[in-house]
Recover the amino acids of this structure.
């Protein structure tokens, strides 16, 4: 299948040609997908309570709902040289990719895969504040840690960059070793360190060219013979189209993204937000928005998979031609696990010396010398 092969043409009863709308989406050198939940923390908590009952899990913490309600995932895929339009590429050609995860503020995690190299950026302060919902003292501690990482000696410059939240080049085969460094040098719980490493590994399908082309093929199939489409009106300058298709087809089309949500919910002990379709043949619906002839939004209620009378949980996928995250390779050195270990031990030693200093002012927070 070529990207040009995604030109599906008009679909009966759908108003505009949906295939043309997909083709227009592919008219630039990259495509951006942004995912978020269209639900308040209260609505999400109601959904998670029912989900826990269905899966036999403990009742969820309301904080889990707050975190999920603020979740913002952005994925970008583009032609590796940035010179050809996506629709002119042959399926399977190498793509550059980027992924970021945020919770209503700065990005907590950023990943780029460019020319076969993997780059990573992690903001400790953002994770503590937005993902872990830390209190003010915990956020200040994370901010102080990052500031002190900037005072590391030049020989540990790469580790310093990583600990301050800048881009570094990483080796995915060394994730366990990076976990060892966090365990030894920072006193990070071993299970948490392993979970972070595994979470990064499991994000790989969204960065993999093979899976990205498969996602386009699934989109083509979702708009194919099993689907019924009808125009339902207009909103904010966009034509709305209702797509009805078998639950199994919807599950397949959203596969990589749903798999990532499921894996991470399980890994970090969260109540699952995604369930296998109760009836694979049951009809489910998604709402598509076509703006200026371009497919721009897909909204799908995940609660449909769990059957009737289940609370709604709309997952909104915003689609844009172009790149919301630069696909240029950062000028970033390779982070070696040994350097990370030494840097963290160095910071730990400096912190012990600071606390033992009899001349240290006994004042709270960032005013401490």
């Amino acid at each position: 299948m070529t990207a040009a092969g995604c030109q599906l043409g008009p679909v009966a009863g759908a108003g505009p040609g949906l295939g043309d709308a997909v083709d227009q989406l592919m008219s630039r050198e990259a495509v951006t997908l942004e995912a978020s939940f269209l639900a308040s923390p209260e609505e999400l908590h109601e959904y998670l309570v029912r989900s826990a009952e269905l899966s036999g899990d403990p009742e969820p913490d309301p904080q889990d709902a707050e975190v999920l309600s603020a979740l913002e995932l952005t994925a970008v895929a583009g032609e590796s040289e940035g010179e050809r339009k996506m629709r002119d590429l042959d399926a399977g050609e190498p793509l550059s990719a980027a992924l970021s995860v945020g919770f209503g503020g700065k990005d907590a995690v950023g990943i780029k895969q460019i020319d076969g190299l993997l780059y990573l950026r992690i903001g400790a302060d953002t994770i503590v504040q937005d993902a872990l919902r830390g209190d003010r003292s915990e956020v200040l501690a994370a901010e102080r840690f990052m500031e002190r990482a900037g005072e590391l000696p030049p020989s540990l410059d790469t580790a310093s960059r990583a600990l301050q939240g800048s881009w570094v080049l990483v080796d995915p085969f060394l994730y366990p070793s990076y976990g060892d460094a966090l365990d030894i040098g920072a006193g990070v719980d071993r299970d948490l360190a392993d979970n972070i490493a595994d979470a990064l590994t499991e994000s790989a399908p969204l960065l993999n060219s093979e899976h990205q082309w498969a996602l386009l093929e699934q989109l083509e199939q979702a708009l194919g013979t099993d689907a019924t489409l009808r125009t339902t009106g207009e909103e904010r300058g966009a034509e709305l189209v209702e797509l009805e298709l078998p639950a199994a087809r919807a599950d397949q089309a959203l596969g990589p993204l749903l798999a990532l949500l499921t894996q991470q919910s399980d890994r970090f002990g969260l109540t699952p937000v995604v369930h296998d379709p109760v009836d694979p043949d049951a009809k489910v619906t998604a709402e598509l928005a076509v703006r200026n002839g371009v497919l721009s939004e897909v909204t799908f209620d995940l609660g449909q998979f769990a059957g009737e009378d289940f609370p709604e949980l709309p997952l909104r996928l915003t689609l844009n031609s172009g790149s919301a995250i630069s696909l240029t390779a950062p000028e970033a050195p390779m982070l070696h696990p040994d350097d990370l270990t030494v840097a963290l031990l160095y910071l730990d030693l400096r912190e012990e010396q600071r606390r033992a200093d009899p001349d240290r002012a006994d004042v709270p927070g960032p005013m401490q010398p």
About this structure: The radius of gyration is 23 Å.
